[in-house]
Amino acid sequence: MFETAIFYAFAAVLLGSGLVVITARNPVHGALALVLAFFTASAIWLLLRAEFLAIALVVVYVGAVMVLFLFVVMMLDINLEKVREGFWRNLPLALVVGGIMMLEMVAVLTRNTWGQSPKQIPHGYSNTKELGRVLYTQYAFAFEVAAVILLVAIIAAIALTLRQRKDSRHQDPSEQVKARREDRVRLVSMPSEKE
Greater confidence, 33 or 160? Predict the structure, then answer.
């Protein structure tokens, strides 16, 4: 009973933060609400005994993706009016997709009513161990292909953004070694002033 109450408390926080994400006028506030949504989703996964997914969500999304997103949002000057102008045009499609997702969630939450019961977890079951076993045996090829695609994407992003700026100043060590004292310093002999 206590676990169920905690689940519904985290679910309420998750729904509230998700609502703030899509209704916030400031993108930074929306991103911070999304961080809260990720943390509460991670807590729900911990309650469902999916420890690896909970930790991966915190490390990958909160620790890397959202920090990068916040950095980009805070560094760029985003025109909020231009972002908001397509809201009403896309609202009907968003409502249809949201309705389908709501029906799927209702179907998942009411599966006990329709006679389907969840599988019982055997004693000593490790979610992380089972995930690793399936990932590195049955889906090993797909895992390697995904890794190669991510590596290519990283290299492409670096190659596209790496460029020499014309206005930047840099040092050339070979030119510095060739420098002579006569070219840099000029000694001027001046008579001392007398009162």
Answer: 33
